[in-house]
């Protein structure tokens, strides 16, 4: 895909992830930090 080639990705079957934060996640650092902290843990409690 051309945008990856322009960034210098040379590996044939590479993948890329695009993310965007909107609303409270973008506007409030505390909300964003709390969310990212929660999802970064490898263990999940149900």
What is the alpha-carbon Rg in Å?
Answer: 16 Å
Shape call: elongated
Tally of extended strands?
0
The run of helices and strands is HHH
Overall number of domains:
1
Number of helices: 3
Structural class: mainly alpha
**Stretches with pLDDT under 50, minimum 5 residues:** none
Mean pLDDT level: 80
Main beta sheet, described? Answer: none
What share of the residues lie within helices? 40-55%
* Approximate strand percentage: under 5%
Distance between the termini: 40 Å
Descriptive notes:
The protein has 46 residues and is an all-alpha fold. The chain has one domain. The chain is built from three helices and no strands. The longest helix is centred in the last third of the chain and has 12 residues. It is elongated, with a radius of gyration of 16 Å. The model has no long low-confidence stretch (mean pLDDT 80).
């Amino acid at each position: 895909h051309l945008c990856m080639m322009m960034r210098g990705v040379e590996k044939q079957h590479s993948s890329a992830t695009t993310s965007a934060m909107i609303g409270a996640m973008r506007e409030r650092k505390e909300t964003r930090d709390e969310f990212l902290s929660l999802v970064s843990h490898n263990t999940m409690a149900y």
